[in-house]
From TrEMBL:
Subcellular location field: Cell membrane
Protein's UniProt name: ABC transporter ATP-binding protein
Alphabetized SMART domains for the sequence: AAA
UniProt xrefs under InterPro entries: AAA+_ATPase, ABC1_TM_dom, ABC1_TM_sf, ABC_transporter-like_ATP-bd, ABC_transporter-like_CS, P-loop_NTPase, Type_1_exporter
Domain ABC transmembrane type-1 stretches: 21-304
Gene Ontology MF term list: ATP binding
Domain ABC transporter: 337-572
Transmembrane segments: 21-40, 60-89, 134-157, 163-181, 248-269, 281-301
Topology of the protein relative to the lipid bilayer: Multi-pass membrane protein
Entry keywords, A to Z: ATP-binding, Membrane, Nucleotide-binding, Transmembrane, Transmembrane helix
Length: 581
């Protein structure tokens, strides 16, 4: 049960002063809180013996006030230290968790649900925070405070009466061993169900247009209710286990009171202890109620924290699929790109998506990559970006293979516009400046012009300051594509990759963007993957992929003369345009 504290030992070592002060003050307050009960017993004995004078009564009142103010002041200090530490560990773990997510590669996200990662970053880390704060409090109160009370009862009253009164306590220990494991297992399942529910909500919100278009609102609502009911039931299972503990504590407290009052009364009549000592003993016995309940809270908090920390640690323990080399090669400003006999297959697939592919792209060239769906166009691009572990063969960016370069070195040379356009819930301006936050107004205007987005600004209610909504929900597909292009262009990267990024614009706008790119990217490398042959007609080289292999390579005119796949596609698409298809 206390394993969670050993897992957080790095934090406790780092913040040892904070926790040392908090625990010492907490123990001191525990001793101070014993004094009023002892004073009450003395007052009763003095009153019974006729020794309670006015002066002595005022003295007792003064001592009570000193105790009250001391306890209040010290409690304020230890609580601020202890719960401040809880917030601190939550912040540290959340930052570590987020930094880990930012370092992870694409294969990591392919195997994990976004909703579950969100649950780990929120609910699970909150449970760990509770362990570092309220967990320490309940541990000290349930163990240290109880031992202090038992010591005071034995020393100040009678050891035989104390032993008799605590005879029922082993029942609590038995319940701890039985319930602890069950709470851990059930809370883990409850958190997993909550992660799945998070993922479902995320998918529903992101896909609301599709849900409404297919009139699936009721179906989605029923699915959500089913998953919500599952979360409710799993948390209810946790609550059922927790609820077993309180009746046991009540039984133990009742038995202790019965034994204490019965045997204590006998000792008073036998003149072994005084009436004041019996009153003090019963007050101490009442003070033990909270530590007994704290044991139940301790089980709950420790098991929740352990289960949550285990889930988070499992995520943090995942290594990068594409680690950086221990010693990165010196960065090369040239943007030559070369594939030398590259064969690659995704880790989750038994097929090879690229097969013995070789091509040389000189710095400053524009290359088009075409082929039917599934031919390997996007895989070709992902190899350049170091998204997956390298296959056989070498991929060079500059003079060195990318396996000898860090991901930062490779990607700092590349401006990438993916097929799936991700826009942030900010303004158009902020989305474009994401590519270069310190860009000048001239650079911003030029990126907008080259991407042919300037013609749309007049139709936006607030121009560049228009909020695009969640993932650009207020924009058309073509507008989102052009904002993504402008975001990549504004950084003026040596290599610009457009991964089927002109599919949502009309032929006229496509031609304008391609013409603008050729004009402004003289001497810079541009790679365009496309399904429309018109997007790559002006390229210096056109690579045709088929089942991951190089089927054709050449200029537009050369490939037209070969009368292969490229020729057929150009002819069909030209015929379709002429017929208005």
């Amino acid at each position: 049960m206390l394993r969670v504290f050993s897992q957080l030992s790095w934090f406790f070592k780092e913040q040892w002063r904070r926790y040392t002060v908090a625990i010492i003050l907490l123990v001191i307050v525990s001793f101070i809180d014993l004094m009023p009960a002892r004073l009450l017993g003395l007052i009763v004995d003095d009153f019974q013996g006729g020794a309670l004078s006015v002066d002595k009564g005022l003295m007792y009142i003064g001592v009570f006030l000193v105790i009250a103010f001391s306890s209040y002041g010290l409690t304020y200090i230890w609580m601020s230290k202890l719960f401040g530490g809880a917030l601190l560990v939550e912040r540290k773990l959340r930052s570590r968790f987020m930094n880990h997510l930012l370092r992870m590669d694409i294969p990591f996200y392919e195997k994990r649900k976004t909703g579950d990662l969100m649950a780990q970053g929120t609910n699970d880390l909150k449970a760990v925070s509770m362990t570092a704060g309220f967990g320490i409090l309940t541990l000290v109160d349930s163990v240290v405070f109880m031992l202090i009370i038992l010591g005071a009862m034995m020393i100040l009253v009678d050891w035989k009466l104390t032993l008799a009164a605590v005879l029922p306590l082993p029942l609590i220990g038995i319940m701890i061993s039985i319930l602890g494991i069950k709470i851990h297992a059930r809370f883990t399942k409850a958190q997993e169900a909550f992660g799945s529910l998070n993922g479902r909500v995320l998918e529903s919100v992101a896909g609301m247009r599709v849900i409404r278009a297919f009139r699936r609102e009721r179906h989605d609502e029923n699915k959500f209710l089913t998953m919500s009911e599952d979360v409710y039931k799993r948390n209810l299972e946790v609550a059922k286990i927790e609820s077993f503990f309180e009746p046991v504590v009540n039984i133990v407290v009742a038995l202790s009171y019965v034994i204490g009052l019965g045997y204590g009364s006998y000792l008073v009549f036998a003149q072994t202890i005084t009436l004041g000592q019996l009153i003090t003993f019963n007050v101490y016995l009442g003070m033990m109620i909270w530590p007994m309940f704290a044991i139940g809270e301790l089980i709950n908090i420790m098991q929740r924290g352990a289960a949550s920390l285990q889930r988070v640690d499992q995520t943090l323990a995942v290594e990068q699929a594409v680690p950086d080399p221990s010693h990165s090669a010196q960065s090369d400003p040239l943007a030559n790109v070369a594939f030398h006999h590259v064969t690659f297959g995704y880790p989750s697939s038994s097929q090879k998506q690229l097969k013995d592919l070789s091509i040389m792209i000189q710095s400053g060239e524009t290359i088009g990559v075409v082929g039917k769906t599934g031919s390997g166009k996007s895989t070709f691009i992902k190899q350049l970006l170091k998204y997956y572990p390298a296959g056989t063969g070498d991929v060079h960016v500059g003079k060195q293979p990318i396996t000898d370069q860090s991901k930062l070195q490779v990607r700092s040379k590349i401006g990438y516009v993916p097929q799936d356009h991700i826009l942030f819930s900010k303004t158009v301006r902020e989305n474009i400046l994401f590519g270069k936050p310190d860009a000048t107004d001239h650079e911003l205007d030029e990126a907008i012009r080259v991407s042919a987005f300037d013609q749309d600004l007049a139709f936006l209610p607030d121009g560049l300051d228009t909020l695009v909504g969640e993932n650009g929900v207020s924009l058309s597909g073509g507008q989102k594509q052009r904002i993504s292009i402008a975001r990549a262009l504004i950084a003026a990267p040596p290599i610009l990759i457009l991964d089927d990024s002109l599919s949502a614009v009309d032929a006229k706008t496509e031609a304008k963007i391609v013409s603008n790119l050729r004009a402004v990217r003289q001497g810079l490398t541009t790679i365009i993957t496309a399904h429309r042959m018109s997007a790559v007609e002006q390229a210096d080289q056109i690579l045709v992929l088929e089942d991951g292999e190089k089927a054709e390579l050449g200029t537009h005119s050369e490939l037209m003369n070969e009368r292969g796949w490229y020729f057929e596609q150009v002819r069909e698409q030209t015929r379709g345009m002429e017929q208005g298809v």
